[in-house]
Structure formats: C-alpha cells, structure tokens
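so im writing up the methods section and need the NTRK3 factor record in one place, dumping it here so i stop losing it
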Amino acid sequence: PPRILTLEEPVLHMDHCIAFAVHGNPAPTLHWLHNGQVLRETEIIRMEFYQQGEVSEGCLLFNKPTHYNNGNYTIVATNQLGSANQTIKGHFLEKPFPAVSGLFSFRMQYTPKFLCVDSKAFSFQVSIAVGLAAFACVLLVVLFIMINKYGRRSKFGMKG
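--- predicted struct ---
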C-alpha cells in the first residue's frame, strides 16, 4: 500500500511549494483536499511530480496565493492495496481587513468608504458637477465677449 514519506510546509521558491514524497507499488494515484474538500487544479494551484521507481516526488504549487488559500492541505495516495493520507497547515497571507470588535456584542467588518457607493447618489453628484462646469464655461464666454466689445473704447474719447 502507499506510504507518505514526506510532506513539508509551504516554501517560496519561484512559486509556493508544498513538497511531498510518496512510496507505493503499484504507483498510487494522488489527489489533494483543502479543508476537507476536493482541491481542483487551476492556473493558480497545480501539482507537479515525477515517478522514480516506486517513489513519487513533487510539489503542490501555488502561484501568488492569498489568504483564501490558507488552511489544511491533505494529500491522499491510493492504489489497489490501500490508501494513505497526511495533512499539513498552509498559511500564505493574513486577511487584509481583520474584524473590528468594540463595545458592541456583534462584530463589525471594516469596509472602506469609497467602496460604499449608492448609484443614484453618485449619478446625482456627477450631474451637479457637469452642470456647474457648463455654467462656468458659459460665464467665461460671456465675460470674454463683454471685455472684447466694451474694452476697446478708450475713456474720454482720447485716441492713441
């Protein structure tokens, strides 16, 4: 039956890597669980390994993991003679906005003010800004015309 020889905590090389080595004859099939759920491979998380005799060595690779990737990772090796599994904790990043607890009995989550936008209020503010800009442009044009029309005449009829 398969035997898990090593399972190491994540280390950063080019990508983050959870290194493993599994022994088994016949060669076991390998899959991973994240917090007890089957882990699907994506462009962010993938497994690479090579078979050398009865030993499979490789890495579960993470390309720029975030706090969503924190948790327990379990490797499961299975062949016709049995199965083996082993779990390790993977911690990559802290949560960016930790929960804030205060005098109240409930927990409040911090949300930046610029993310809380009401679409009606925002469109009203934009229309006010556009209206003020248009009024300023019209006022400048009228002032320019008045200066050109009345500013050319010299006072007291004097020329030169």
